[in-house]
Each structure stands twice: as C-alpha cells, then as structure tokens.
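Hey, resending since the last one bounced:
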Amino acid sequence: MLSAMSSRSTHGTDNSPTAEQLQILQTASEFAYRIWENRTSSCQTFLRSYPLDQTLTRQQIDDLIQDYTLDDNYQLADELEVMSGLRNLRTLLMMRWIWQDALQAITLDQLTDELSEFADGCISFAKEYTYKGLIRQYGEPTFIDSKGHVQIDDMAIMAMGKLGAHELNLSSDIDLIFIHKKRGETNGNKANGTRSIDNKRFMTRLGQGIIKLLDQNTADGFVFRVDMRLRPWGDGSDLAIHLSALQKYFSLHGRAWERFAWLKANIIGQVDQDFYNDIESLIKPFVFRYYVDYSAFSALREMKSLIQNQVAQREDLDNIKLGAGGIRDIEFIVQAFQLIYGGRHTQLQVKSCLKAMQVLHEFNYLESTTYNQLQAAYRFLRRLEHGIQGINDQQTQRLPHDPQWQHNLAITLGFDDWSALLITLNQHRENVNIPFERMVIDRQVANDENIEVDAKSIDEQVEQLNEVLTEENRHRLRSFWQSKLVKNLSDEARGRLDDAYPVVVHALLAHEDKQLANSALPRLIDLLEAICRRSIYLVMIAENPNATTELIPMLSASPWIAKELAQYPVLLDTFLQQRYRHLPDKDELSDILRQQLLRVEPGDEEKLLSVLRLFKKNQILAVAAGDILAERPIMEVSDSLSYIAAVVLEAALDRAFAEIVSRYGYPIGQDGDPVTEADCGFAIIGYGKLGGLELSYASDLDLVFLHRIKEGGMTTGEKSVSGMKFAARLVQKLMNYLNTQTRDGRVYEIDMRLRPSGNAGMMVVSYHAFETYQLEKAWSWEHQALVRARAVCGDRRVTARFCNIRRDVLVLPRTIDQVRNEVTSMRIKMQKHLGTSQWQQQKAGKFHLKQDTGGIIDIEFLAQFAVLAYSNEHPSLANWSDNVRIFEEVASLGIWEKQVCQDLSDAYLRIRAATHKLALSEQSLLVDDTLWKETRALVQAQWQHLMGVDSDEK
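The structure tokens again:
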C-alpha cells in the first residue's frame, strides 16, 4: 500500500505534506482538515516525527501516551493535564490515521491494529494512574484466600466487541467489563493517612476513574467513548463484578446472545497468570460447548430480528453495519459457526473476524466462493465505514445524504462517482445477504411448500402421518411419547423435542414413497431416544428441516447408519451439514484430519484414538449418505473409502513414528544417515481391497510393513535401541492406534497374515528381505495377492522400492498353463472352504455374491490370472492393482476381446454395488439366486472360456 501512496504524491525533504496530499485530506475529512488548519504547526511537528508513510509500533504508542501525560517538569501530570494530554494525542493520531487511510498508506489490518493498540495503551495507563491515586487514599484492596492468606485484589479489564478482537474502527466506542478477584477490603489505615473501604467500592471507583479519564467530554474532546452495558445485568448493576459472582451469572442467568458478546472478550494489559486462568476457565465453557451447538442459531435469529426492528424504527435503511448484507451479518455468520464448532475445533476460538473466517474456510465450513466473497465484502465495508466516520469523527455507519460528501467519499475510496460506489456496495451486500439468509432464515424453511413446519398445525400433520403409518408403527410412536424417557425430560429438553417434532413429521411425510416412513420410523425413534437426553441434537434437527427430510431415506435404507447415528449422535452434524454432496479427495481428507490433529498433544493416545475414530466415522457416513442419496458410482464410493483409510494410516504412522522417536531417537537408515520425519524409513503396503482401491464400509485392512533401516544399528537417542527393536515397537504402536478395541470400536480391523511367512513371520521386514522372500520363497497364491497390492504411505524410497519389487515379481516368466493350474487350484480350495455347498444352492436357491462360482472371487481371480500369465510379455499389466483397470489394460493390449473384458468389469461393478447395499442394510451376501442368474452365468461362461475349466469342476 505504501507504493500506492508514493504514486499519488511525494513528501518533501522534511516529511511535510504536499499540496496533493492536503487536497486528498480535505476531500476525505472535514474533521481532520479542520485540525490541520487550526493546529498546522503542531500537526507538522507530529508528522515529522511520525510520517504518513510509516506505521506505529506498540512501543511508539506507549511512548506517545507517556510523553503527552507529563507536565512541564517532565513529571506525571495532574488529572486535568492528563485528560488534556490524552485528548490532544488522540486528535493528532486521528488526523494522521484518517489521512493515511485516504492516501491508502495503511492497510485495513494495520489501521485497526494501531487503533486497538492505542485503546489498549490508554486503558492500561488509565487503570494504573487511577489505581495509584486510590491506594494513596484507601490502601490496596485485599482478600483472604482459601488457605487463610492475605492476597492483593486486582481488576481485569475485559475488552469486548471490536476492541476485544483488535478490530477497532476510526470512531469506535469501546465496550468494557470490569472483573476483580474476590470480596474483601482495602488495607487502609488512619495512622498513615488512608482509610479502609470494601473492595466493591474500591473497584467501582477504579472503574469510574478509568471511564472519566477516557470518556468525559472536555474542551479538548474525548479519548474513547466507553460503553459498559455488556456487563452482567447491564445498566444499573455493579460496575465491577467479582469472579464467583460472574461464575454464578454464567451458570444461572447467562443469555444465549451474551455468548456472542463474550466470544470476543479479551483481557487488556497484564494480570497475574492465576487470575488470567480463572477468568478464561469461566468464559470458555460459557461461550464454547464441547458438543456441536446448534442452539446458537436461535440466538442469532433473535438478535438479527431485534436489530432489524431497530433499523426500521430509526428508518436507518442506509446503515452499512446493521442493514441487510452489512458488517453485522458477516460477523453473525462467522460467530455462529464459531459458537457451534469452536468447542470441537479450538482453532476457531480466535477473536478476529477475518482470522476466524480463514479457519472456517480451512475446515470447509465456508466453501471457497463464499469465503472469498465474505472476506472481500468485510474489507470493503470496513474501509467504507472508516471513510464515513472520518468525515466528521462520528460513530456512525450511515451513508452520507449530502451530495458533496457522497462525491467526496466515492473519490476517497477510489471510485469515479457515487453511483459507481453504490454498485459495488450493493454487490457486496448481495454476496453477504445470500449466505446469511441461507444460514439464519432458510434453514427453518422446508422446501415442500405443501407442508408447513409449524407447531400450530402439528395435530393436522400427525393425523396425516397416522394415515400413512402401519398399526405397529403408530403403536411405536404412541409408546415413545408415553415413555418414562419423554415424561422425565427436563423442561428445556422437552421444549426442544416439541420444537423438533414438527420437523420430524414433515420429514416423514415429505417423500412420495410412503413405505419410507414405515421402514424409517422404528430407527428414527431409536435415534430420538438416544438424543433426547443430549437435547442439543434435537436443536440440530429443528434447525435443519431440509436435511432432516433427507435423513428418512438414509434410515430406511441402512440400519447400520441408523445404529451409528444413535450410538454417536455427533455424527448427525456431518449429515445435517450435507457434506455428502461433496466427497473430498485424498488431499482434502488429509488436510481435514491434519487440522483435527493439531489440538492433540503428543503422548495423548486417548485423544488421538478419539480423533481418528471420529474422523473415520464422519467421513464414512458422508460416503454412505452420498451412496444412498446421491447414487454415486461404485468406483467413486470405493475410492473415497480407500482414501479415508490411507489418510488415517498416514496420520497414525506419523504419530507412532514421532512417539517412538521421542523415546529412543532416530534409527539409522541403510545409507548410514539417521532417518527423518519426511523420510521415516518405513512404509505401509496395502493388500486386498485396500490395495485394489475397492474398500467397502466394513472392510478390514490387509497390511504389510516394510523398512529401510539398519536392523543392527543403534538409534540416536540417550536410551538407544537397535533398529530392529525400533521397527518392532513402531509397528506395535501403530497397531495399538488402529486395532485397539474401545467402547467406540476400533479405528480399523487389521489383518497382517499376508506378510512374508504369514503369522509365523516378522511384523515388519526390510525391503531386501521382502524381495528375497517374493523371489525365492513365496507361494504362487502370494504372487496372486501381490497383484492387488500397492504402497499406501510412508518413506518415498521404501514405497518406490516396493513398486519395483512388485513389478519385477509380477513380470517373471510363467507359462500360461502353469498359472492357470495354480489359480484354478487356489480357487477350488477357496470355494470348498468358503462357498455355498451345491446342496444349499440347489435346494435353497442361494448364491453367495463373493465366494460362490460366478461371483466376485471368480472375477478377481481372472484379473490376477491375466496379470501373472501375460505381464512378462506385457509389463504394463503390472501397473494396476484394481480389477477394472486391469481388464481395461487387457482389452487395450488385445489379450482378450474387449467385450469380454467389458462384460467382466460390468458384472464386477454390479456385484460390488450390491455388496455395498447389503452392507449398509446389514444383510448377508447370501442372496436369492434367481436375481443373479444372468450375471452369474456370464461370469461362469467366461471362466470356462478363459481358464478351460467347467464351473461344475470347481
């Protein structure tokens, strides 16, 4: 921005303003230009010391406050001189800030920061100045602590609103709250000329002194307008409140809208650490709930309604702060998200609106377009606000009505005329109003106009629902309402249930297929029973009627999803946010988990496991919802499930490596240097469904662990161990993270039987040992398994070496007959052990989609046969680990007919889609054979054609 100023004008050699700069000031501000005209000499002197093209540090601001509060003898002045000095300093700084803003010589962030630092400095000075005067009269305020010791009381000054967030504008008032430690009395003594008063009176007088120094309007003006109305109980209450009274207020009387106010609360100046911690321990649980808190929206609507009424009453339709699409709407959007999710994501517990907006974007609560538009609108509106306030130093956010000042304001902000400014302003307002209305108003409006989500018509809705429900379900619903659970709910919880019920009824009635309501209702009642005692989740439902409507087909289709939601209601948020509409790719998933892990301290395994489990459950639920509601292609679903697993494995490996390194130091790599976090010397290899990017909802993970460290070398830590022991303990720690059974289940079920030598083998081996085993000892079925293997995460050199080993093994020369016999033999063994007997197939008419002839395993074995039989001649076949792309490559190489490969791929995807659906509905893979005769016959025919073995022989 400094270059922008330089291009408009140039300073003289003595830093005096140029004629062009003076013209810009006159255009921007009648107030600031009048200061220049009336006090030219003082202004010139001030600007020589603090030029317009430079910013101010906090130290410079503190030095200025000190300089302007000294008397002629350079001693601290009396009260009248101090008040005059602070006001004169404020006048000069305002002149300078308005000028810098008009010249674009200062950024919005820097300007609000300097204004806030000046306020902080003045408040801290006023507190110290007043305190010293009071203790000369009354002694120091004291209290008796819990141990019977005398302690000195102190007062913390809480900055609220713009000052709390360090976002003060050019003519802001400052919202303050005074908190002191405890009741007591001062240690005044008549013998030394002081008298004792209680701490309440002392703190009241301290607060009054601070307000007087800053707020009182004198011939020199004021420093800051001070507003104390945000304190507990508001006007008419004690000016200062002690900690225990504040605690009682928060727990018994704190109102929902006050959480928005205390969100930005910040302590000004220095207080002792214990006092600071005590205050924070009261504020944080009041503002932020650990659970996802949708009750913030009701408070949001109440506050918005009040403000809209006030605007209408004042006919203040040009208010860029309170009007539709104004600054307050942006702050509401951001603060609502902070209150809802700030308990879960501590990164959201920031004061600044712009910083909070950025975190919301990083956590995907604001998509990129909305984030960019809100950020741009906020910066524009705040700059416009400064321009408006700078005209006459008035605390206003109303657009000027005077045509001259409309023109001047437009020119100051870089527009050709007033109409051009209004076009940009209205576009920003629209960009803000759309997400605000969507968040605060639209979320309670159902899409179906034929059904009112209104408690007044609930009886009519219930009658309509009764006509749809079966007698059994009507009985279930009556039993729920008559249950002890509902009857014993607290008044608040019962009120929330009553508010949510019209939304639930609407959701059940909203679908054309009325059978959905009957199949979903028992599971919906289970969910309601699970969340009634944690009634904030009822608020989620009430606040999201359209998303709740989508919940019904989910519950109808999947008892598994219903059980997950009932057991882990926090997952409701993922669904109600409708995140299934966009399934994140692997990089996005990795970033989401990384953000969540930032708040997990090293060594906190319980928290780590909780984050990993919740991340997995949330993301899989989003995939399942997309599968059911958005009808996503099966390959896209499996890709997403495989990405989730890969991201969890990568994070778990990073954490396990860091934990073991903290104990033993770094192991030595095979190149002789210690490994690093970036290249840790270890890799995780995925086999089976994970390797083939074909995971389902309940799939376990087939894993093999490889390393590139010196097994006999010692680690670098004080408590060193051998590389082999380090490797073993790393894998043990990793398995503990992933496989530990808790009341919330496992992160993943891990199967390591495919490692070299199976269960008899080492848990982790070097890639040299792995290569030797594959080339010299592995059975043919292990080479089959290698077809569906890929490096999932870890050290780049290890993963690259594995890829080379895999390729070298798969392209080994083999005769087609040899491969055909080995693959067929293994398939016969599997079918005998795991498939459905011929008697079951014939008598019961059953078909196991995976294990029986003509099922998934047949198709997978055909793909593996193709790779092992033909890769020596066609090495590109070894590139892929998933069946569909293997068949595509076989077709492109002309090994098998394209139609054959297409038929096998289609059959494979069709069966896999069915297995996913059955997994969601918790049904067996043993299905009615008549529904699969055509698909099964196709696969059996291709098996006979390609393998030369009749299906009956298997």
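Residues 524 and 555 are 7 Å apart (CA to CA).

Sorry for the duplicate.
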